[in-house]
Amino acid sequence: MPTISEKAKKMPASPIRKLVPYAEAAKKLGRKVYHLNIGQPDIETPGIALDSVKNMKERVIEYSHSAGNQSYREKLAGYYKGIDIDINANDIIITNGGSEAIIFAFMTCLNPGDEVIIPEPFYANYNGFAVTAGIEVKPITSSINNDFALPAIEEFEKIITPKTKGIVICNPNNPTGYLYSEKELRELSLLVKKYDLYLFSDEVYREFCYDGENHFSAMHIEGLENNVILLDSVSKRYSMCGVRVGAMISKNKDLMSYAMKFAQARLCPPSLGQIASEAALETPKAYFDEVYAEYIERRNFMVEKLNNMEGVYCPKPKGAFYTVVKLPIDDSDRFAQWILEDFEYNNQTVMVAPATGFYSTPGLGKNEVRIAYVLKKEDLANAMEVLEAALKAYPGRKL
Amino acid sequence: MPTISEKAKKMPASPIRKLVPYAEAAKKLGRKVYHLNIGQPDIETPGIALDSVKNMKERVIEYSHSAGNQSYREKLAGYYKGIDIDINANDIIITNGGSEAIIFAFMTCLNPGDEVIIPEPFYANYNGFAVTAGIEVKPITSSINNDFALPAIEEFEKIITPKTKGIVICNPNNPTGYLYSEKELRELSLLVKKYDLYLFSDEVYREFCYDGENHFSAMHIEGLENNVILLDSVSKRYSMCGVRVGAMISKNKDLMSYAMKFAQARLCPPSLGQIASEAALETPKAYFDEVYAEYIERRNFMVEKLNNMEGVYCPKPKGAFYTVVKLPIDDSDRFAQWILEDFEYNNQTVMVAPATGFYSTPGLGKNEVRIAYVLKKEDLANAMEVLEAALKAYPGRKL
Predict the structure, then answer these.
(1) N or C end: fewer C-beta atoms under 10 angstroms in chain B?
(2) How many CB atoms lie within 10 A of CB B382?
(3) What is the mean predicted confidence (pLDDT) over B275-304?
């Protein structure tokens, strides 16, 4: 049998995937499983986006431009201008979801063996994209003790080597829900400038900022035009994760002309998803107000419930729809499996994502899990009850 | 400014893209440009596929399974069983077009520095995927003198090194339209077995076989289950290139479990495209009969016209909807630019793809161009008139 590549062997398996058989087994036993583990919102896709596809006039679903439809990119540039990001259609490459934007960015900017620094816990799939590009992730630990704020700039500087070529931030953050402040980003930008690094800024949760906080984008920083690559997606903004439409954006024209070669090789992003995404730009403000109110209510409810449980600490996330919460447990992987396999409460259980999968440093995240508040409040209320009961019953309880 | 990666610098620019400004300039001058250069058919997408999207009931466009919807994969396995390819849903990973299938296959099977042998001329984007994966393409030249038949097996054997890990074939072939015979594939399979190579078989034009010839798939070869990776796409079959739905298929379960890690990292293939693709499996036979009759008529017309031009030789392609044709010209890149820039016939001109872009060996393809017969007959007739006149007027004419 021919051999498997080293990269394939190195590709991390998702820490959630291994729990799937246990969730399926629980469902087979007739148990209700509340999925707190996923980033798939239950919010409806805007009607205007669904209708655009239903009413399409095309008789041939053709290839689009490799950078995405011109009409979509022009309107999308308008969306960015509306949030003070001054780009035009040619600064945008539409991608197969935010995932492909990250891969294109890594492939265009980094050589095998190069290093990127990422504050941990971080979105686990960055590991997979790093392996794909043959680069190394150097984690820098952010702590639940200060609600996962950006680590001090000196900490970044300590791990910079000649191989360091970039920093990846996710803002608002998945998995922590932390929203980086303008001050934090400006401090980071000085470092980026000093070492002439790339700043890969994943801002797919931009619309989900709470408590009156504004989103400050890496693209807002003057003088960093050649360093910043904005990674974006319509998945969360319009609750249409399945359309697979993202974007790689930069004002660095040289960089974008090279990235286009990767885009051309794979022909184009999905045409149907682009139709929906272009239409979604006209989503009425009322939709977002409703979504916003819904998430705020869920978050407030969940954070309060969690912090009232003995031995639990949940920061109040200011963005996205996740939180990383500290639990009185010995091992989050063991706990996440146990709760599906050996526990039920009124014939219900929950699935959570062990935080170990979001840390790169071995041993971290053992007493933390990521919870996504993507369920409606009644379900979230039941899930919190189940979780509280489970924490009391868990044999590995550790206060 | 931070540096660009070596891979990005090495990524080939499409030989067609550089002609685009000349085509646009010709259009600005009011000239009609016939596009013989592209693989975008003008055939309508099956109504059943379009309707499936228009009538969808989903209110949230969710992520699908990373391998693609179970229902789609099950029906797709049924499609393959219907053409004597005995696979099941778990042997299939649905991808973002055939492009991603190739990338996943290269990434899973090959290490940087590994070599794959590809008969040239070949689909130019294989070069881009090879650069992405960090592998080397070793071309083996097929010749217009025997209509681009598979080169002799001894020729393959001559260039096999310890680094050779696979062979890529495209059958029916883009760009040549050549249909490999069962005999050719069985000979190739002995070599694959002898050196325990991967056989990457790109069969996206499977439905386009003419003159009563049957398509023989690499998956039909017994005993090669662990070596063959089938690369497929709905783009051409159902004339819906823009849905971006392809597939990586193999009976090698170990291999597929590793490939799944790449699929999971990028979350999922497009949900809307999968709805269309699943519905398209019910396309009535009458649709294909009509498409088939249309392509046959176009091909016969075009081949006859071309072979009646002085100094032109066009093989009669038995598959796909391309041909590589020999022209009495000094330099196909120069000719392709000249015809757009400096030539018009009754205010019309044509765009062709210089064959140099499909050869890996420098200097080959200088007197060949690829022509796609994706235009309706009236347009094709005009395009042939233009081409004939252009060949007579071209300053670099070389009989």
Answers:
(1) C
(2) 17
(3) 96
Domain with CATH 3.40.640.10 in chain A: 57-280
Strands (E), chain A: 32-35, 92-95, 115-120, 136-141, 164-170, 198-202, 228-233, 246-249, 322-326, 348-351, 353-354, 368-372
Q: Could you tell me if A108 lies within 8 Å of chain B, comparing CB atoms?
A: yes
Q: Provide the residue type at A205 as one letter.
A: Y
Residues of chain A with pLDDT under 70: none
Burial class (CB in 10 A: 0-12, 13-18, 19+), B258: buried
Fold (topology level) of B6-44+286-393:
Aspartate Aminotransferase, domain 1 (3.90.1150)
Amino acid at A33: V
Residue A380 is predicted with a pLDDT of 96
If one counts every other C-beta atom within 10 angstroms of the C-beta of residue A389, the result is 18
d(CA A268, CA A100): 11
- Report phi then psi at B149, rounded to 5: -60, 165
Q: How confident is the model at residue B38 (pLDDT cuts 50, 70, 90)?
A: confident
Q: What pLDDT does residue A42 have? A: 86
In the structure, what pLDDT confidence band is assigned to residue B13 with cuts at 50, 70 and 90?
confident
DSSP type of residue A287: H
**In chain B, which segments carry CATH 3.90.1150.10?**
6-44+286-393
Residues 6+ apart with CB under 8 A from A386: A34, A339, A345, A346, A348, A349, A350
Beta strands in B238-384 (DSSP E): 246-249, 322-326, 348-351, 353-354, 368-372
- pLDDT, one tens digit per residue, over A240-258 is 999 999 999 999 999 999 9
pLDDT number for residue A189: 97
B contact test, residue of A62, A72, A189, A291 with most B CBs within 10 A: A62
Report ipTM for this prediction: 0.96
> Which chain A residues are within 8 Å of B9, Cβ to Cβ?
258
Written as six digits, the tokens of A145 are 């003790």
| B110 interaction partners in chain A (CB closer than 8 Å) | 5
For all residues of chain B together, what is the average pLDDT?
96
A51 backbone dihedrals φ, ψ, rounded to 5°? -65, -35
Interface of B with A in 160-199 (CB under 8 A): 165-166, 196-198
CATH number of the A57-280 domain: 3.40.640.10
> What 8-state DSSP symbol labels residue A136?
E
Query: Residues with Cβ < 8 Å from B143, sequence gap 6 or more?
Result: none
Answer whether residue B39 shows pLDDT above 80.
no
On chain A, the residues whose CB falls within 8 A of the CB of B54 are: 53-56
Integer Cα distance of A388 and A395 in angstroms: 14
B198 bridge partner residues: B166
The amino acid sitting at A315 is: P
HEC string of A170-231 equals ECCCCCCCCCCCHHHHHHHHHHHHHCCCEEEEECCCCCCECCCCCCCCHHHCCCCCCCEEEE
Which chain A residues are within 8 Å of B4, Cβ to Cβ? 108-109, 254-255, 258
- E strand or H helix at B386, and its extent? helix B377-393
Q: Per the CB < 8 Å rule, is B242 touching A63?
A: yes
Peptide bond preceding A269 in cis form (omega within 30 of 0): no
Cβ neighbourhood burial of A293 (10 Å; 0-12, 13-18, 19+):
exposed
Each residue's pLDDT tens digit, A200-243: 999 999 999 999 999 999 999 999 999 999 999 999 999 999 99
CA distances from B189 to B108, B161, B223, B228 (A): 21, 17, 9, 9
**Which residue is associated with the tokens 């140099």?**
B356
What gap in Å lies between CA B74 and CA B278, rounded to an integer?
Answer: 10
Report pLDDT for A370: 97
